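Translate sequence into structure tokens.
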Amino acid sequence: MTGPTDLLRAWRWPLFAIALVLASLGVRATMEQRAAYARAVAFERAGDLWRAVDEYRWALRWYTPWGPDHGDAAEALRELGDRHAKDDPELAVQALDNLRSGLYAGRSLWLPHAELVTLCNDRLPPLLVRVAERRGDPRARGAGRAALLAQFQAAYARPVGVGPWVSLAVSLGFLLWVAGIVFAVRRGVDDDGRFLPSGWRWLGASALGFGTWALAMWLG
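Result follows.
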């Protein structure tokens, strides 16, 4: 009978490899997030608001649950959208749309700052109508204005992104992909360096994990 100690011994290297890969990805995402946020703050202080909005979006897209600047970047975009809604609706649209898309980019089994996504869905349609009006779009005037607003509201009410099952498939596929390779090396090769049947089975499991991960990413 296999006990907890035997299971831990068998899985220690795959778990270590997975933890190492995830830690490396997490460290890179955090560093990129901090760098993008620092650039955004510098651009905003210099008055280059359009470039600041773009960098705030990148700070959101490099999401980690522990990222120190993710919440600040989201609030900065929300504040820019509120501040310029009256005098510069195009900039406000850019800020709020980047806030929304940046938060969706960090979606996995949950959506970070879901309340801000709801806020964007409510505020973007009337702002887009105002932008269309400023650009001379005839649909934004007279009787057609209400229909255009309804069109934008319907567009932002549609679900975006992938469901939790696809996110779960991405995660499990990635874990099986890495674990299969580690087990194939650790348990599928004999002392003479020859590949054992168990090694081919683990490689097959790794290929299955990679296929699941790739398919889920494509569907997403």
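Note: The two ends are 41 Å apart (CA to CA).
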